[in-house]
Amino acid sequence: MSDIDQFEEHKFKAGQSGNPSGKPKGICGGRVKALGALDRITGKEENIRLIEAALEEALQKKPLWFFMNIVMPLLPKETKGVLEGGDRVIEWRSLVSTVGGTGGQAEGGG
Q1: How far is it, in rounded angstroms, from Cα 16 to Cα 66?
Q2: Which of these, 55, 88, 90, 60, lies nearest to 74 by C-alpha position?
Q3: Residues 40/41/46/50 CA torsion (nearest 10 deg)
Q4: Closest by alpha carbon to 92, among 72, 66, 110, 65?
Q5: Measured between alpha carbons, how far is residue 11 from residues 60, 68, 69 in Å?
Q6: pLDDT digits 0-9 by tens, 12-63
C-alpha cells in the first residue's frame, strides 16, 4: 500500500466524528463551570455596582492603562472603523497593525 493510500485511509471522513467515543454532549468541563460561577457572581446587582465604581476609578486614575488593559482586550482583533473628531479622522483597522505605518506609527502620525 502506498503512502497516499495510507493517508486516504486515515483521513477524516465528512460528517464522521474524529472522536466517536469522546465526551458526551451536555457534560461541562471545569472551565465552563468556572465561567458559570463568574457569571453568577458578576451578575448580582451589588457586584455590578462595585465593578462599575472600580472601573470608573481606574479610568480616572490611569486612562491609558485602562484603555490598554481593560478596553483593548475586549475589542475584536480584526475590525475596521472610522472615528471623526473635530478636524481629525482616525481609521482603526486592527489591534495588530497600523494603517500604512512603520515603526509602530500610523501613516502621517507625529
Answers
A1: 46
A2: 55
A3: -130
A4: 72
A5: 56, 44, 43
A6: 777 776 677 777 777 888 899 999 999 999 999 999 999 999 999 999 999 9
Identify whether the C-beta of residue 92 lies closer than 8 Å to the C-beta of residue 83.
Answer: yes
Q: 97 with 103: CB under 8 angstroms? A: no
Measured in whole angstroms, the distance separating CA 17 from the mean position of its chain's CA atoms is: 28
* pTM of the predicted structure, to 2 decimals: 0.45
The Cα–Cα gap between 80 and 77 comes to 10
Task: Find all residues with CB under 8 Å of 91, minimum gap 6, and list them.
Answer: 80, 81, 82, 83, 99, 106
